[in-house]
Amino acid sequence: MKRSILLSIFILFGLLATEKSWSATVKISGKAPEYAMNSIELYTLHDIVSEEKIKLGTFRFSADGLFNLDVEITETTLCLADFDGYHGMIYIEPGKSYQIVFPPKRTLTESQKRNPFAKPEPVWFGILNPSKDELNLKIQQFEQEYAKLENRYFDQIFANQSKSLVDTVNLKLEKEFPKTNSSFFESHKFFRKANLEFALNQGKSAEFMETYFSHSKPMSNLAAYSVIFNQVFMNYFSMLSNAPNSTEIRNRINSANLTKLDDYFQKQLHFNKELSHLVLIKSMNDAYYSKQFSKALILKLLDQMKSPEWSAYEQKTAQLIHSKLTYLTSGTNPPSIILKNLNGQKVNFSDYPNTYIYLHFTDPKNSICRQHLDALKAISARYKEKMVIINVIPEIKGFKNGSGWPGIFTTTDSNTETSYKVKTYPNSFLIGKDGKLLLSPAPNPIDGLDRQLGQLFKSDYFKEMQKQNNPDVK
Questions:
Q1: Buried (b) or exposed (e) across 111-126, using 16+ Cβ within 10 A?
Q2: Do the beta carbons of residue 369 and residue 362 sit within 8 Å?
């Protein structure tokens, strides 16, 4: 008995010591005078499918531009930061310290910030006095050489399906970057080379799948793995369903039985359990947006991942995907935002119970928005007894509604780009009498709003008449 208790204590201490060793502090510091008194959030991604941001900390720059940040991590982690049109990147390793260098400061105009087609410029954070074996330095050097060779040979590899050219590029890379003691860097090289192999047959060969995926666990913390994974398994349900002799997999997908699908991926496709689960999650994410599969079916499959067969991390990933797919969809609650009218008084959706609310994000300084606001006058006059209009505008000093536009004009400090995905103006939503999103998005005033509201209120009228004639009908 004593021996059993002592053994249990030793095991417990061992587990605690192991757990403590898994987590280590990373110290990040530096000086960037251009960024004085600014703050920039540093984050990583929960997984490579949902790409949910996990905040690691915030760089807060002093008046002199000094900054420092301590981050707790358990493994080599890709850290990201979005600022001034940049997409900053750096790998950090547990227990290490980094003095980093920010790119030159630049100021974006409001139109640049709101341009939905503008993509941030990817940049690696610089590191002061790195050793020659520093991970970020090695990866950047490799990427420069890889890009040079890819630009030179890729078209020939893709067009001619030339295995010999792939071998040539791999030999050049191996000569330039021989084997190192860094398993992480070796993995980076391995999966970047997979992109060249992928160009030969789009990953359809059994040999390719065996080499790069079937027998190894996913490396979600490695960007090179993420890139090739998302290429290989893009729209995977569609690819499998459209292949010859695909009746079995189509039936398993349409049966909405997750266990059967997982069994097929592991036994028929020879995926290890972790790969099977990650591919299934990605497949559902992609299938939701295709017209080949029922959205309800995909959501049902995601719900089935709340099972002991799926790890806590996988279940969380599935939950994030489910939330992302259903976000801002009709029938869900509208995101909460703090609104104030032009007198500084709070405006709440709950102030208008059992009433339709037309939530209109607009900018009176924009000529297109003014046309929509003008068109809203006639619509408001027609339906003023049935609908409240809430206009959400940017903070405009001294703004007064001198044009007599309808509705309540409000401003908000909430991030509408995050909450309502508003990247351009105008952008509109219709909240139903039950307080849930009814039209998401809703038509803008000169884009068919009048017709849509007419149909809606006509339907409401007939339902009301039916109730009066037959009280038992709900």
A1: eeebeeeeeeeeebbb
A2: yes
Residue-wise pLDDT tens digits, 260-275: 999 999 999 999 999 9
Beta carbons of 152 and 124 less than 8 angstroms apart: no
What tokens appear for 304 in the block?
Answer: 């089935």
**Domain ranges for the chain:** 25-129, 136-326, 354-469
Is residue 182 classed exposed, middle or buried when 0-12, 13-18 and 19+ CB atoms within 10 A define those classes? Answer: middle
Tokens for 310, please give them: 């799926």
Residue with tokens 């410029």: 121
How high is the pLDDT of residue 4?
A: 41
Q: What are the pLDDT digits (tens) for 316-332?
A: 999 999 999 999 999 99
How far apart are alpha carbons 37 and 63 in whole angstroms?
6
Residue 102 is encoded by which pair of tokens?
């920010």
CA 374 – CA 158 distance, rounded (Å): 53
The contacts of residue 35 (CB under 8 Å, 6+ apart) are 59, 61, 65, 67, 102, 105
User: What tens digit of pLDDT does each residue of 42-53 get?
Assistant: 999 999 999 999
Which fold would CATH assign to domain 354-469? Glutaredoxin (3.40.30)
Query: Which CATH architecture group holds 25-129?
Result: Sandwich (2.60)
Cβ-based neighbours of 253, under 8 Å, separated by 6 or more: 237, 241, 261, 293, 297
Q: Residue 91: which of 31, 144, 137 has the closest Cα?
A: 137
What's phi and psi for 438, nearest 5 deg? Answer: -105, -50
Does residue 474 register a pLDDT over 60?
Answer: no
Strand partners, 360: 391, 428
Place of tokens 């017709």: 451
